[in-house]
Every structure is written in structure tokens, then in C-alpha cells.
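Methods — Computational structure assignment.
A single polypeptide chain was analysed. Its primary sequence is given first, followed by the predicted tertiary structure written as C-alpha cells.
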Amino acid sequence: MIVRIMGEGQIEISPDDIAVLNELDSELEAAIETGDEKVFRVKLHALLDKVRHVGKSLPDDSLEPSELILPPADASIEEVREMLGDQGLIPG
């Protein structure tokens, strides 16, 4: 699966890593629902850090279609709320 972190580039993620990313996504969604900015920031950074850690960055000149688009680390709660689908940022 190819994931784009806005402002950073594309990362290839193994299907085996989706479950742990979904857990972090659920925690992020819960923080958005409560409106807790501090917890939201921690959860957003945890999700993005995990994507960077488990994934393999694609070269900048790679033009693969992204299956998921994640917000940048400095996104606001409202910006991320607008990006949420029925299954959060990461379906599954």
C-alpha cells in the first residue's frame, strides 16, 4: 500500500502493518472526538512516526498513485477531522 504524508512524500507500507496503524488511527479519532488538542497532537505524531518507521520511503521522483493520504504533522484538529472517512484515516 502506498501512503502519502502531505508535505513529505510517499511511503510503501506492508499489509502486515495495517492493524497496528489502525489502532493508532482509532486513538487519533478518539482524540479528535474529545477535542483534546494535546492528546490529538501526541496521537497524530505517533501515527505518522509509525508510518515512517514501518514503511519504506519511495524516491522523490516516483509517481506511484497513493492509496491513502495522511495529514502533515502540523495539521489542526479541524483539518484532520475533514480528512476522516467512515473508517478513520486508515480504512480496515
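Note: The radius of gyration is 12 Å.
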